[in-house]
């Protein structure tokens, strides 16, 4: 059924960035979706079948987010967003029920035979970035699936024998206690800090299998401070809470990558627990590495929150309060 929608942009500058040179990005969207797209000043009119119009609106929403975060967009950005919006929900990350060697579409998740897949366009971009890049930095608020999807990708790679081990890393700064004050061996000491990663692992794999893999060093739990001097080959390496690393720590971590490895760094730059004058390693890396080939930087926002709907409203309330403080 034919439908239409109108998108109002912030200003002419945003429109020029979104439309591309000689409207090349608009032509790509028209060709991909079969919709009619008419640009007039700072407004965009979209006409076509209902599903295609809905997809076009989501594409423009994602491209506007990229313009806001990056300051510009590239032809590759446009192609990626179009692909994710059209097919992103079909990208399957296999987990516990998977069998090594199968294609992505054949691999199932758990004993319940469910599939783990992106639930938003932003998550779809994140998954595609992890597939396509050797190093992915994902920045977004709580509840957007940053950690869960990263662990899902690592489990998928392990199941398909693309890597030989999973290495989970987290800076131990949140609780205000030093690791030495906690009882037990190194796993017991770091367990409270790595609990979100454990939760994701146990949700994606059978708990006894997680334990067996840890006993055999296939899954390794490492405090960030213990990564110095190592080179990790054929591994999926996840650094969670990357915003709580310092710049030297982030440099040290990223340079641990060996041959055949993937690195995924997640973090929320609105929840930095470092001392006031310390610069976040994740913030620094996002700016420093944004133009480095084979490194992807993905931003998620409140539209990608997949926890309880109230989480999105809570975050919006806090953001409005912060905006009010900055104005004053």
DSSP E strands, number: 9
Query: What structural class do you assign from the helix and strand content?
Result: alpha/beta
Mean pLDDT: 82
- What fraction, in percent, of the residue positions are helical? 40-55%
Shape: globular
What is the H/E string? EHHEEHHHEHEHHHEEHEHEH
Which percent band covers the strand fraction? 15-25%
Number of helices: 12
The largest sheet has its strands arranged as 6-5-7-8-4-9
Radius of gyration: 21 Å
Description:
Strand 7 (235-239), helix 10 and strand 8 form a beta-alpha-beta unit. With 328 residues, this protein is of the alpha/beta class. It has a six-stranded parallel sheet, with helices on both faces. It has a three-stranded antiparallel sheet with strand order 1-3-2, with helices on one face. It has helices spanning 12-19, 24-33, 50-70, 75-87, 121-132, 146-159, 186-190, 195-204, 207-215, 247-254, 281-288, 309-327, and strands spanning 2-8, 36-40, 43-49, 135-139, 165-170, 219-223, 235-239, 262-267, 295-299. The longest helix has 21 residues, at 50-70. Helix 4 (75-87) crosses helix 5 (121-132), helix 5 (121-132) crosses helix 6 (146-159) and helix 10 packs across helix 11. The protein starts with a strand and ends with a helix.
Question: Outline of this structure?
Answer:
The protein is of the alpha/beta class.
What are the main properties of this structure?
328 residues, 6-stranded parallel sheet, alpha/beta, 3-stranded antiparallel sheet, globular
């Amino acid at each position: 059924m034919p439908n239409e929608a109108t998108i109002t942009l912030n200003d002419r500058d945003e429109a020029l960035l979104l439309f591309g040179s000689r409207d090349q990005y608009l032509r790509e969207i028209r060709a991909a979706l079969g919709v009619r797209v008419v640009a007039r000043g700072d407004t965009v009119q979209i006409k076509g079948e209902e599903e295609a119009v809905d997809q076009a609106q989501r594409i423009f929403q994602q491209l506007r987010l990229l313009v806001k975060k990056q300051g510009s967009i590239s032809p590759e950005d446009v192609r990626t967003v179009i692909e994710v919006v059209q097919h992103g929900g079909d990208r399957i990350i296999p987990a516990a029920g998977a069998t090594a060697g199968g294609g992505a579409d054949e691999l199932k998740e758990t004993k319940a035979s469910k599939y783990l897949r992106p639930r938003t366009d932003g998550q779809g971009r994140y998954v595609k970035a992890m597939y396509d890049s050797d190093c992915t930095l994902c920045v977004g608020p709580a509840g957007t699936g940053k950690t869960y999807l990263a662990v899902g990708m690592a489990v998928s790679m392990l199941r398909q024998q693309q890597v030989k081990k999973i290495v989970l890393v987290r800076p131990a700064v949140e609780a205000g206690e030093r690791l030495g004050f906690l009882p037990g061996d190194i796993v017991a000491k770091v367990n409270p800090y790595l609990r979100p990663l454990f939760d994701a692992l146990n949700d994606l794999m059978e708990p006894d299998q997680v334990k067996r893999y840890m006993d055999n060093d296939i899954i390794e739990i490492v405090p960030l401070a213990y990564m110095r001097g190592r080179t990790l080959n054929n591994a999926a390496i996840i650094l969670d809470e990357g915003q709580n690393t310092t710049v030297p720590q982030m440099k040290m971590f990223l340079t641990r990558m060996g041959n055949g490895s993937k690195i995924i760094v997640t973090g929320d730059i609105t929840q930095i627990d470092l001392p006031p004058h310390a610069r976040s390693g994740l913030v620094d890396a996002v700016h420093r590495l944004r133009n480095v080939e084979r490194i992807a930087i993905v931003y998620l926002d409140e539209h990608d929150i997949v926890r309880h709907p109230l989480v999105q409203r809570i975050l919006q309330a806090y953001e409005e309060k912060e905006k009010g403080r900055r104005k004053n």
